[in-house]
Amino acid sequence: MDFGKRGFEVQYFNVKRNPEALDRFLDLSGGDRRVPLIDEEGRISIGFNGS
After folding, report:
1. What is residue 46's DSSP assignment?
2. CB within 8 A of 38, min separation 6: which ones?
3. Cis bond leading into 19, ω under 30°?
4. Does the predicted TM-score (pTM) go above 0.90?
5. Which DSSP string do the residues of 1-29 spell out, in sequence order?
6. 3-state DSSP call for residue 50?
7. Domain range annotation of the chain
8. Distance (Å, rounded) from C-alpha 51 to C-alpha 48?
9. Per-position b or e across 15-47, b if 16+ CB within 10 A of its CB
10. CA triplet 40, 3, 26: central angle to 5 degrees?
11. Which tens digit of pLDDT belongs to each residue from 22-44?
C-alpha cells in the first residue's frame, strides 16, 4: 500500500543510523522491531499485516 499516493504524510527514518529514531520507534511499537510501523493519528500498526 502506498500511503504517499493516497494523500498521507509519509516520513522515513533510518533507525540503524539514528538512535533517537530507534528509541521513538521502540516506544511507539512497545519494543516490537517489525517494520513498517504506521502511526495513523495515534493508531499504531506494526508489520505488513498491521498487527
Report:
1. E
2. 3, 44, 45, 46, 50
3. no
4. no
5. --TTTTT-------TTT-HHHHHHHHHHH
6. coil
7. 1-51
8. 8
9. beeeeeeeeebeeebeeeeeeebbeeeeeeebe
10. 50
11. 999 999 999 999 999 999 889 99
- Confidence category of residue 14, pLDDT binned at 50, 70, 90: very high
Instruction: Name beta bridge partners: 43.
Output: 40
CA distance 4 to 17: 23
Task: Tell me the three cell numbers of residue 44.
Answer: 499504531
Query: Which neighbouring-strand residues pair with 40?
Result: 43
Cell representation of residue 49: 499485516
